Amino acid sequence: MLDLGRSLIASVARMPNALALVDGDVRLSYEAWFSQISALVAGLSDMGLTRGDRILVAMQNNRAAASLHWACQMAGVITVPVNWRSTADEIGFFIENSAARALVFDKSSAEAIAEAPQAVSLPRITYGTSAEGALDYDEIVAASAPDASPQAGADDWSIMLYTSGTTARPKGVPRRHRTERASTVAHIAQNLMPMRDATLGVMPLYHTMGVRSLLAMTLLNGTFVCLPRFNSAVALRLIAEERIGSLYLVPTLYHDLLDHPDFAQTDLSSVKRLGFAGASMTDGLLQRVDRAFRPELFVNHFGSSEIYTFSIEQNAVAKPGSAGKAALNQDLRIVEMGSGDPEAVVKRGSEGEIIATLAGDEAFEGYFQNPAANAKALKDGWYFTGDCGHFDEDGDLFVTGRVDDMIITGGENVSPLEVESCLSMHEAVAECAVVGLPDERWGKIVVAFVKKRGEVTEEDLADYCRTTTLANYKRPKKFVFVTELPKSPVGKLLRRDLVSGNYTPNTAAAQAALKEKTHDRSAI
């Protein structure tokens, strides 16, 4: 299999004049972009980096981050992209854990980098900011350099992503060139992306969704349109101006786009393919997005950093909530929750833990220097995802949540996602999240946290639930109105914050403050 460096060279040779990258006023053809990437490769070498070294990258989605990713693939340097919002303590952990030998950052992470003791002695590159002793990105790419030659092979490491670390320190997920390329080819095929496509580069490049968008566009001689930080108004303008064909977002961002006042006036005719991942999409939002865009393809992608694709549903609206069937490079099973046994397969229709084969071309081989995590998640050639779900009578997968999120109330299992999808159909519910809170009698009770779209009371929602197909034990016993639902930087719902009380109730004062906010969001 081709490594990623040779894949880039092939794209440059195929269509050198095609538009590769857009970032504000910067518009680069493949030929011009490769020239800058080659200069970066030379710059990495001048810093003393060689094949197999790791470089920490803490940047927003801009031309420097995209170019550096490809320069590392050419140079055989392993890129370690991390959240640009990381604290100094987190930066220090990433440097130590990955054994990074250099770092690259922009203004968004400059303060944390400056405060991290582990970063002081490392060679560095800055973009849009400055630091003592650092090289300047723009000066590097402006220098003359010969065309770079690939230094890595398909079996070399390409990237090390870090998991979100919701309960402990994040885990490093190293991935090889061949697994990154296989994931990208599958992404292209399963999303029916054409040559010369264009996508909005909004999902962060420290997340597998963002990396996949970048690589897919390059392999297709398409255009990667950078959006450094999500802003609904800017995103809508770029969709129209750059004729975005494939839009790939988390559900939160679709919600924000639809709610922006510019949405109704935006020309969306170029958008033919929609995809979402990273979180479930409620039935209500699914229908709203479909009515608004009328896409030719609407894909629900279920996967992870460890194994990019578990399953694909190419017609998400046809069977709401379905994650479809196993992807091109996958085989899935549902096993008894807590069994840790890949042979403990449950009968169709029964709920259990979803596991995925490690034999697929997209699979990682284990967490970086973390035997305890490997022992928990990797067993007899299978990856235990920590997600629970079931196969229906058609063999389609339904993901019902995280194993740890399942609510056990009065001895019955309740899936938060099922309750959330039901509530999302109420016209006055903008967003909702369901968790289990401790109760002396029931063990836990089902509690719904609701962000309003219109006037509604707890009694209204309780009455509404009684008219639905929700079983009595699944109906929320309590409703809490909030100004916003807590989410991670990539739009994943943070249920643990709701459980711990880390939210803002929708009081009169809070609602007044909320009305003063603009529609521009900063979710990414």
TrEMBL record:
The keyword Ligase applies. Residues 11-368 form the AMP-dependent synthetase/ligase domain. It comes from the Bacteria. Residues 418-492 form the AMP-binding enzyme C-terminal domain. InterPro entries: AMP-bd_C, AMP-dep_synth/lig_dom. Keywords: Ligase. Belongs to the ATP-dependent AMP-binding enzyme family. This is AMP-binding protein. The lineage of its organism: Bacteria, Pseudomonadati, Pseudomonadota, Alphaproteobacteria, Hyphomicrobiales.
